[in-house]
Amino acid sequence: MSEKENSYSCVVCTYVQSIDIPKCEMCETPNPFRSKPTKSDDTTYSNGTTLCPTCTFINSGNHVRVCEMCGHEFDAGSNPSKKFRVDKNEDKEEEEDDDDDDDDDDDYNGYNDFDDRLYEPSMPQNKDKKRKPIEAVEKPMNDNELKSYYNRYISVLKEQRQQTKKISDKQLHEIILELFHSLQYKNEQPEDIDYYKKRQNELHHTVQVLIERLKIQTNENINQISKYWSYLKQLCLNGIQPQTSFNQLCNYLIKPINSNKQFEYYLKQNDEIGGLLQIMSNTLHGVQYRYSSSTINRLFDCEEEMMIDNLRSELEFLLSSYFDTLTIINEFSSFSQTSLQEVNNFHLREIIKNDYPSLVEKISNDFITKVPQVDQMLVKMLRNIKKHLFCDNFDVVNKSDI
């Protein structure tokens, strides 16, 4: 409520206005202060109004069913007889609203539990003229806020239209050249091209050296596996002789030559292989009545042959993939353009920056994951022999069955 005595704040839209008007100028909610009689009011009544017994609000019309102020429902046969005399201007305004009483009745039916301190009447929806100011109150953004977004949208549209109108073939060519220069796609001098070629040759040589080194390391490990496997086979076969114990056989093998000393050192560094040898010796003692020494010897030979063949096949596959990649890189570097020589230089830079480093990284990883490890292969082969010895039937003639 406003502090001034000649004004009040609307209970619906909080609009501050004169206390003398019958309804709110913004949302047309009835003025509750106009309905209260004062000392200066006359006790005579006019025929165009009806007094509400609940809130003492003056309702327009003789046959009012619901109070416009508080929603009080009048009985059909007991309309109150007290009716205040109002001004002619108010009579004229309320006569204009008589046609809307039926619609207003439907709007106010939901307010039976009325509290005059929390008055929230429904909004009239029958006239466009009355609905317009209410819509203005319910807008989430005012015109000034919306205007800034609209101006930005129009500005973007204008810029797009101006650009599409101004761009020509010549300007498009200039834009493309500018893009190339901004990304450092520029024409190189002859010495720059020589530098790229020289750098490519250096990287190509580096890759070839790495490939050759991987090939050599793989072959060395394969030969080492074959060499140590022959010692392991001899230890196992001699261990099944009744007159020779496992320890006596080891002492005999490590004495004569330096290679046996190397194998002795290898066994000391690999406890897992030494433990498997002891298990294999016990296993052979348990199955020697089932298989002859020659059969067990062939079993060891077949296991070695299969493992070596698999390792060499994997090496050939790796080398083939490396050489295929090098072939693609060489073909890509020799690709030329007749109109834009800088594109050719771009290929060289991409090869130097991405292709060769990727291939070097792949070969380096294969050194760790693809080159066979001697101890791992020997352990795998010993376990395969043990598995075949416990089988009821095995064919040592056909390698694929082992």
Report what the structure shows.
- This protein is mainly α and about 400 residues long.
- The chain folds into three domains: about 140 residues, no CATH class; about 40 residues; about 210 residues, no CATH class.
- Helices cover about 60% and strands about 5% of the residues.
- A hairpin with a 6-residue loop joins β3 and β4.
Keywords for this entry:
two-stranded antiparallel ribbon; two-stranded antiparallel sheet; 4 strands; disordered C terminus; 12 helices; 402 residues; mainly alpha
Q: Could you say which overall geometry the principal axes of the C-alpha atoms support?
A: elongated
Number of strands: 4
- The low-pLDDT segments are 36-46, 79-88, 106-140, 182-188, 337-344, 396-402
The percent range for helix content is 55-70%
Mean pLDDT: 68
DSSP summary: helix tally: 12
Radius of gyration of CA atoms, rounded to a whole number = 52 Å
Instruction: Specify the structural class.
Output: mainly alpha
Elements, N to C (H/E):
EEEEHHHHHHHHHHHH
